[in-house]
From TrEMBL:
<protein>
    <submittedName>
        <fullName>LysM peptidoglycan-binding domain-containing protein</fullName>
    </submittedName>
</protein>
<feature type="compositionally biased region" description="Basic and acidic residues">
    <location>
        <begin position="158"/>
        <end position="167"/>
    </location>
</feature>
<dbReference type="InterPro" id="IPR036779">
    <property type="entry name" value="LysM_dom_sf"/>
</dbReference>
<feature type="domain" description="LysM">
    <location>
        <begin position="167"/>
        <end position="217"/>
    </location>
</feature>
<dbReference type="InterPro" id="IPR018392">
    <property type="entry name" value="LysM"/>
</dbReference>
<dbReference type="Pfam" id="PF01476">
    <property type="entry name" value="LysM"/>
</dbReference>
<feature type="region of interest" description="Disordered">
    <location>
        <begin position="147"/>
        <end position="168"/>
    </location>
</feature>
<dbReference type="InterPro" id="IPR052196">
    <property type="entry name" value="Bact_Kbp"/>
</dbReference>
<feature type="compositionally biased region" description="Low complexity">
    <location>
        <begin position="147"/>
        <end position="156"/>
    </location>
</feature>
Amino acid sequence: MEFVLVNGKGERFTFPVNPEEVTISRQKGYDTTTILSYGEFDFAQGDKVKEISFASFFPKAFDASYCQGSEQDLPDPQTAMNKLNEFMALTTPLRFIITETAVNVPVFVASHQSTFRGGEPGDVYFDISLRTWREMKASKVASSSGSSQASSVVNKTPRLDMKEKSKTYTVKPGDSLSKIAKLELGNSSDWQKIYQSNKQVIGSNPNALKPGQKLVLP
């Protein structure tokens, strides 16, 4: 069994140590109204967003007795913690999967908390909370007068295509591929990735950038 988060690019992040337990919170929504001297009345609404929460840790050293995968797959605890921060900042949903179970749902990382323990240097403990995602879209409903009007409803079947849109960059005077790679990807040596993705636009000479060209970033 593996606990996995998959982003819109199809990149998988597998939690190295399975949690001992997972809590899935489900609640029914209610609208409470007070009617004169009769008191309060509850009117049932739609289901609230489900919350999935669990706790585990990122170990500094690999231990086959509880770690998933191989020693080469074990992420650095600090890097893994930063990855959760990156996931929490996303505006597009992730897919959360628990293999060998029916859990395979689109989610947002709602919160996570990291803990460092003095007796276990290098390990990072965490608690994480996920909220399931449902798409909002407009549908037309007929009014009493026969005309149609738009109404926002929840699509109970989440859209499966959650791929992130490709990010683009418009070349400015004085730009080079290494400069763009440093600014946009954080590493100037990744200029070749940009070139390979935009070879048809740039041409055979990677140094022949022209202001106004739109490049697709990997």
